[in-house]
Amino acid sequence: MTYDSDLLIIGGGLNGPAMALAAAHAGLSATVIDAQPAAGLLRDDFDGRAYALALSSVRMLRALGLWDELAQHAQPMLEIKVSDGRAGEGPLMPFFLHFDHGEIEEGPMGHMMEDRFLRRALNAAMQKSGAITVLNGETVTEQNTTSGHAEVTLASGRQLRARLLVGADGRKSGTASRAGIGRIGWDYGQTALVCAIQHDLPHNGVAHQFFMPPGPLAILPLPGNRSSIVWSETHETAQRFMGLDDAAFLQMLRPRFGDFLGDISLAGQRFSYPLGLTVAKAFAAANLALVGDAAHGMHPIAGQGLNAGLRDVAALAHVLRDARHCGEDIGSIAVLERYQQWRRFDTATLSLTTDLTNKLFSNDNPLLRAVRGIGMGAVNALPALRRGLMREAAGLTGDLPALMRG
Amino acid sequence: MQTAQSTVDPAEVAKFEAMAAEWWDPKGKFKPLHMLNPCRLSYITRQIAAEFNRDLQQDLPFQGLRLLDIGCGGGLLAEPMARLGATVVGADAAERNIPVARVHAQQSGLEIDYRHTTAEALAAAGEQFDVVLNMEVVEHVADPLAYLTACQQLLKPGGLMVCSTINRNAKSFAMAIIGAEYVMRWLPKGTHEWNKFITPDELFDLIRNAGLAPVDRKGFVFNPITWQWALSDRDLSVNYVTASIKEAPTA
Question: Does domain B11-245 have CATH number 3.60.10.10?
Answer without folding.
Answer: no
